[in-house]
């Protein structure tokens, strides 16, 4: 999701995750090939890091996954990727799933680890409906790019574990940094675990509660920027998002778009 300052929800999620992250810091195995050192900060975005896994690192199944941030759709030039961030949420995720079902659309759900752990039934429902999973870290820290590699590893790999356990064994296929706070290290780490770094082209701004009409207008005016659209199903009242999806999805079909997943 986009960076948002002073969000009460983010503070609550971060506080709720502190117990998880404190324990995990002592027990997690840092499997990154870069041998992260506590207190060593990640390089600035766009810089090289010689210790990170190479581009095109292979997932556990042996399939190469690019370290480049994905923006394209697997449905080609007219494809659209619907991405849903920050859940799952017991109030809003079921409503989002219903709208997607009504329109025959598959989406990518970027889940916060603590949310997935708290609502495994919803994670399983997302998977059962044919949607894909994305790792959105343990605590949604939008300052990830300023933190040590050990911290980045813990946030990404513990969330991967939480989501996989909650889903019943289905692993996330993508990694989206909170607020777009990617680093070369985090991208390589995610790719080495089979998760393609995932960006977005259209920020619906639904997190700001601008009104259903404003969300719809933003998507319509910015879809020419690219296929990956960012929405949210947690972090507060998402009724405007649900209503906007009811309008946006049929409109996108009318414009000749088809719905797919981000490229892997």
UniProtKB/TrEMBL annotation:
Keyword field contains DNA repair: no
Keywords: Signal
Pfam families membership: Polysacc_deac_1
Region (Disordered) residue spans: 39-89
Signal peptide interval: 1-34
Transmembrane helix is among the record's keywords: no
InterPro entries named in the record: Glyco_hydro/deAcase_b/a-brl, NODB_dom, Polysacc_deacetylase_ArnD
Bias (Low complexity): 41-57
PANTHER family linked to this entry: 4-DEOXY-4-FORMAMIDO-L-ARABINOSE-PHOSPHOUNDECAPRENOL DEFORMYLASE ARND-RELATED (PTHR10587:SF137), GLYCOSYL TRANSFERASE-RELATED (PTHR10587)
The protein's name in its UniProt record: Polysaccharide deacetylase family protein
Species assigned in the record: Streptomyces mirabilis
Lineage per the UniProt record: Bacteria, Bacillati, Actinomycetota, Actinomycetes, Kitasatosporales
């Amino acid at each position: 999701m986009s960076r948002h300052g002073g969000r009460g929800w983010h503070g609550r999620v971060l506080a709720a995750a502190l117990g998880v992250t404190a324990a995990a810091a002592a027990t997690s195995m840092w499997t990154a090939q870069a041998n992260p050192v506590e207190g060593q900060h990640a390089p600035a975005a766009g810089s090289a890091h010689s210790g990170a896994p190479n581009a095109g690192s292979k997932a556990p199944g042996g399939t190469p996954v690019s370290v480049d941030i994905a923006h394209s759709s697997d449905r080609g030039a007219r494809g659209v990727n619907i991405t849903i961030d920050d859940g799952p949420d017991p109030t809003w995720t079921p409503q989002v799933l219903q709208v997607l079902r009504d329109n025959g659309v598959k989406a990518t759900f970027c889940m916060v680890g603590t949310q997935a752990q708290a609502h495994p039934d919803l994670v399983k429902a997302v998977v059962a409906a044919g949607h894909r999973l994305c790792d959105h870290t343990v605590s949604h820290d939008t300052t990830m790019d300023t933190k040590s590699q050990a911290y980045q590893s813990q946030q990404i790999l513990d969330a991967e574990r939480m989501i996989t356990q909650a889903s019943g064994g289905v692993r996330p296929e993508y990694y989206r940094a909170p607020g777009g706070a990617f680093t070369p290290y985090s991208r390589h780490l995610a790719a080495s675990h089979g998760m393609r770094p995932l960006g977005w082209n259209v920020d619906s701004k639904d997190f700001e509660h601008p009104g259903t009409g404003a969300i719809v207008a933003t998507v319509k005016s910015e879809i020419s920027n690219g296929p990956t659209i960012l929405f949210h199903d947690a972090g507060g009242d998402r009724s405007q998002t649900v209503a906007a999806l009811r309008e946006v999805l049929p409109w996108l079909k009318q414009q000749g778009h088809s719905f797919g997943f981000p490229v892997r």
